[in-house]
Write a structure and sequence with these properties.
20% helix; single chain; globular; alpha/beta; Nucleotidyltransferase, domain 5
């Protein structure tokens, strides 16, 4: 299983489209051992292209704080499972918590209408 988590620098970024990269690691599903942890800089294209990019990276799971319904749908259409409601700063801890059974919590972006794009700065 390949897991991706949005980050800014090397810290967890709570919203899927706001980070400047993704922490990515492989997890052996039988042993739960984490391999090849790394931070990849996201393409400078619009956040709408992130699901395709993550699919090209062969990501199976995305752990996020919040994600809009459209973004979640685009990931799931590509076979990527989305677990929202995560929090913290250290992506490694988030992965370890997920592997220990913490599938996340409430998606804060599901509680209000998304009439704007979080991944764009105002005026874009």
């Amino acid at each position: 299983m390949r897991i991706a988590i949005p980050v800014s620098g090397e810290q967890f970024c709570e919203h899927f489209g706001r980070g400047d990269g993704f922490f990515v690691c492989e997890v052996d599903e039988s042993t739960r051992a984490m391999e090849r942890p790394r931070v990849l800089t996201r393409p400078r294209s619009k956040c709408e292209s992130l699901p395709q990019w993550l699919q090209e990276l062969r990501v199976n799971v995305v752990l996020v704080g919040g994600i809009g319904a459209v973004g979640q749908r685009h990931l799931e259409e590509r076979g990527i499972r989305v677990y929202a409601g995560h929090s913290g700063q250290d992506p490694l801890r988030i992965v370890h918590a997920f592997l220990a059974g913490n599938a996340g919590g409430e998606n804060p972006c599901a509680t209000f209408e998304h009439r704007h794009h979080h991944c764009r700065k105002p005026g874009q």
